[in-house]
Design brief:
The protein contains 1 helix and 17 strands. The chain has a 6-stranded mixed beta sheet with strand order 9-8-11-16-13-14, with no helix packed on it. Strands 3-2-1-5 form a 4-stranded mixed beta sheet, with no helix packed on it. The chain has a 3-stranded mixed beta sheet with strand order 4-7-6, with no helix packed on it. The radius of gyration is 19 Å and the shape is globular. By secondary structure, the protein is mainly β.
């Protein structure tokens, strides 16, 4: 697959900002798909504070990619994707390439072979990855089932952070002083801080579920440096995959995700439970 990445807003977005629209393509192996990503600055408001951040296709978090193992190349670099004989498409700034300059474009082309599962993408220069990220989900081949009960629905859930200050200024100050960088002002789920933060009563990600159904949650920790816990009240989670590798299923009430780690869990909703609302706010970590 070929992907064109356009930097239209500023200098140096070499990004391995690579995802595309949240696509659910037919699972046909061996085909080439083309995606176009527009990298630009956009005003986004959180916590009573608005600022300009780097986005892909105008989205924060960035769009998700769902595909099957085949000839692909959506991005220059992803956590966990094996770049076999295509190291130049890996993405790290000043390691495999120079940043994409303002108004310029670059085509990344590589293959994903023999891999499936949940990964993610993000910008790979300085702290642009604080806002430039999104899920990458490689589905099993057509006719190949999951080695666990088929879920009723699959939901990507990506954990991130929100900084009121300019993230580039934060990391620059840390490098100059030798101290640790300032922490974020909020944690987010799919870009939303949740009602426990200022000006965020309605800024909450909610997953509406049906009783007695099994949901496959694709959990991704895109936070810069933090380890995060995740759990859902009155329910257990069944871990079935970690970093795009199937594991022997086991149940737990909460899981810990390191920065950059992905974990797939099954959530079996209860038949009867008293909740204050018809949907469940996933707003705590």
């Amino acid at each position: 697959m070929a992907a064109v990445y356009k930097s239209t807003a500023f200098m140096g977005v070499f990004v391995f900002t690579f995802v595309t629209l949240c696509l659910f393509p037919l699972p046909i192996a061996g085909i080439t798909r083309h995606y176009k990503f527009d990298i630009k600055l956009q005003n986004v408001a959180r916590l009573c504070h608005a600022k300009s951040i780097v986005t892909v296709n105008g989205q924060f978090p960035g769009p998700c990619v769902m595909d099957v193992p085949s000839t692909v190349s959506y991005y220059p670099f992803m956590h966990g994707v094996r770049q076999l004989r295509t190291g130049w498409a890996n993405g790290p700034a000043y390691v495999t390439q120079c940043p994409i300059q303002n108004g310029q474009s670059y085509v990344y082309k590589f293959r994903i072979v023999g891999q499936r599962g949940t990964l993610f993408w993000h910008a790979h220069i300085s702290w642009l990855r604080a806002t430039d990220y999104g899920p990458l989900i490689i589905l099993p081949r057509l006719g190949v089932p999951y080695p666990f009960p088929k879920p009723y629905k699959e939901v990507p859930i990506i954990f991130g952070e929100w900084f009121n200050a300019d993230t580039e200024a934060i990391i620059s100050q840390a490098l100059q002083t030798g101290g640790g960088p300032n922490v974020s002002d909020a944690y987010t789920i799919n870009g939303h801080p949740g009602p426990f933060y200022n000006c965020s009563a309605k800024d909450t990600f909610k997953l509406k579920v049906k009783p007695g159904k099994t949901y496959l949650l694709h959990l991704i920790n895109a936070a810069l440096n933090d380890q995060l816990f995740f759990g859902i009240a009155n329910h257990t989670l069944t871990v079935v995959e970690v970093d795009a590798v199937y594991v022997k299923p086991f149940e737990t009430e909460a899981i810990l995700l390191a920065s950059g780690q992905t974990t797939n869990v099954l959530l079996k909703t209860k038949q009867h439970i008293q909740m204050p609302h018809s949907s469940w706010p996933l707003d705590r970590m």
